[in-house]
Structures are given as C-alpha cells and as structure tokens.
Amino acid sequence: MDMNSSSSFQPSGKNSVPEAREALNQFKYEVANEIGVPLKQGYNGDLTSAQNGYVGGYMVKKMIDAQKRQMAGK
After folding, report:
1. CB–CB of 31/51 below 8 Å?
2. φ, ψ for residue 15 (rounded to 5)?
3. Is residue 25 packed enough to be buried (19+ CB in 10 Å), middle (13-18) or exposed (0-12)?
4. Distance of alpha carbon 50 from alpha carbon 72, whole angstroms
5. Per-residue pLDDT reduced to its tens digit, 11-40
6. Among 25, 37, 65, 71, who pairs with 32 as Cys (CB 3.0-4.6 Å)?
7. Residue 19: what pLDDT?
8. pLDDT at position 68
9. What pLDDT is attached to residue 10?
10. Rg (the chain; Cα; Å)
C-alpha cells in the first residue's frame, strides 16, 4: 500500500476528526464510570489490560448502538 497516495487512510492513533477528541475523551470517562472501572485523569498504569479493553469495547458497543438507532430513525 502506498502510504503517500491521496487515499483516506488514517494512521492508527490519529483522529480523523480532531474536533471530536475532547468529546471522545469525556465519553471514555463516562463509560468507565458506568461499568465500574476506576479510570482517572493522568496515570492509569495500575489498571489491567482487561479493564482498559473493557472500556474501549463498551465504548464501541455504545457507539454502534447509537448509530443503529439513528439509522432506524429513533
């Protein structure tokens, strides 16, 4: 794959919509609180990879559910 071509490819770790960064960050903390993961501002090295993965996975689930509702007109 030619990384210099004018495709819509976004490297991992880059937000395709930078303006959404703060909203996604806030969403992450809301989800962590909802599922009982003690995520805090700053260092979170005391959390397990399973806890971090659960937060990310649940964020994706909630975003997919919201998109489905929107597409269904609800």
Report:
1. no
2. -80, 130
3. exposed
4. 32
5. 566 667 888 899 999 999 999 999 999 999
6. 37
7. 85
8. 97
9. 52
10. 15
Is 28 in contact with 62 (CB distance < 8 Å)?
no
On whether the CB atoms of residues 55 and 32 are closer than 8 A, the answer is yes
CA distance 58 to 31: 7
pLDDT of residue 17: 84
Backbone angles phi, psi at 27, to 5 degrees: -60, -40
Say how many residues make up the chain: 74
| pLDDT for the residue numbered 1 | 46
* Residue 55 burial (10 A CB sphere; 0-12, 13-18, 19+): buried
Residue tagged 């971090």 (tokens): 52
Q: What is the DSSP string of the chain?
A: --TTSSS----TT--SSGGGHHHHHHHHHHHHHHHT----SS--TTS-HHHHHHHHHHHHHHHHHHHHHHHTT-
